[in-house]
Design brief:
The protein has 315 residues and is an alpha/beta fold. It is built from 8 helices and 8 strands. It starts with 7 loop residues before the first helix and ends in a 29-residue tail after the last strand.
Length: 315
């Protein structure tokens, strides 16, 4: 019924580029009063391609810092973004996790139109959790997870957006940031700073001195079947206008089944630190099912987070 090859995330980039709070001049929706301004042509989003990018990440195995799989996948991500004509910056640093282990971390930034002054930020995390602490099989809880959705899905969508923008150029500057060491925090503790170490590092030391973006959109767990993208309250606190605009756009585009106009509890995710440290209004598009004990998908931080979870229609 809907044109699922046209993703709402492409709308987020291109339509919001013209419809910004500062009153940008390029309208992407038709002017119903005069029809004087043209409607933006939305390029097709190839869900098969996005799915393949997720599968490729999973093929490396768990992408946990300090592992060979992490290095190999990071190298592949860099080469993919370069092949799409983006300017790639690698931000390598040491991050100490809550267990006291130094982790060789690597934020990957792909910039489109790097000289443009007006910029937006699109982001996801690319690492996967080092333990399956919510797996029902206690004998497997100490093993790292594949993270097809939790990490892989957001990265896959952003890779496809980068590929699409190469063949459908826009004037807007777009920075795609893949944060590392997001998912290595203490799930039993109360220290929120044990999470999202890559986002904390980038927010304090961005890839460009004095970096500013008009707004940011974070994608986290955006590939599962029958998702529920509710209005996450940390996003509402820091970027209410952006969140309302994206959700209204989703509804008008026929995606109201997924982008529900309901509040959901705030989460400690990369966007929290981008908002609170870098002061870039950023929202989190994240799947928050109603009836689970964790508030996330049943596969969250388990070995069930594999390609069987991913839906091309959701992508």
């Amino acid at each position: 019924m809907y044109k699922f090859k046209n993703t709402i995330l492409i709308f987020c980039i291109i339509i919001l580029a013209g419809c910004q709070p500062d009153g940008g001049q390029t309208q992407t929706l038709p002017n119903t009063q005069t029809d004087a301004k043209p409607k933006t042509v939305i390029p097709k989003f190839n869900r098969d391609s996005a799915y393949a990018y997720i599968a490729k990440q999973v093929s490396f195995g768990p992408r946990v810092p300090n592992s060979r799989e992490h290095v190999a996948c990071g190298d592949w991500l860099v080469e993919q973004f370069k092949s799409f004509g983006t300017k790639v910056t690698e931000q390598k640093f040491l991050a100490r996790n809550y267990k006291g282990t130094n982790m060789r971390a690597r934020n990957i930034i792909a910039s489109i139109n790097p000289e443009a002054n007006k910029r937006v930020l699109l982001c996801a995390h690319w690492d996967t959790r080092f333990i399956a602490d919510h797996d029902e099989d206690k004998t497997k809880q100490s093993q790292p997870i594949l993270g097809a959705d939790d990490g892989g899905s957001g990265v896959g969508v952003l890779l496809e957006i980068a590929r699409t923008l190469q063949s459908n150029p826009i004037n807007l500057g777009v920075d795609i940031v893949l944060f590392d060491v997001e998912d290595q925090g203490d799930d039993n503790g109360k220290d929120i700073h044990s999470w999202c170490l890559g986002a904390q590092h980038w927010s304090r030391q961005p890839h460009t001195t004095g970096y500013r973006a008009k707004y940011g959109i974070l994608l986290d767990m955006v590939g599962a079947k029958n998702p529920r993208f509710a209005k996450e309250q940390t996003s509402v606190k820091y970027a209410p206008e952006l969140m309302d605009k994206v959700w209204a756009l989703a509804f008008k585009s026929g995606y109201g089944k997924y982008f529900v106009d309901e509040p959901t509890r705030g989460v400690t995710d990369d966007h929290y630190f981008v908002n609170s440290i870098a002061n870039i209004p950023t929202i989190d598009i994240i799947n928050r099912p109603r009836e689970t004990s964790t508030g996330f998908g049943h596969y969250w931080h388990t070995h069930d987070d594999n390609m069987d979870i991913i839906s091309k229609r959701t992508l």
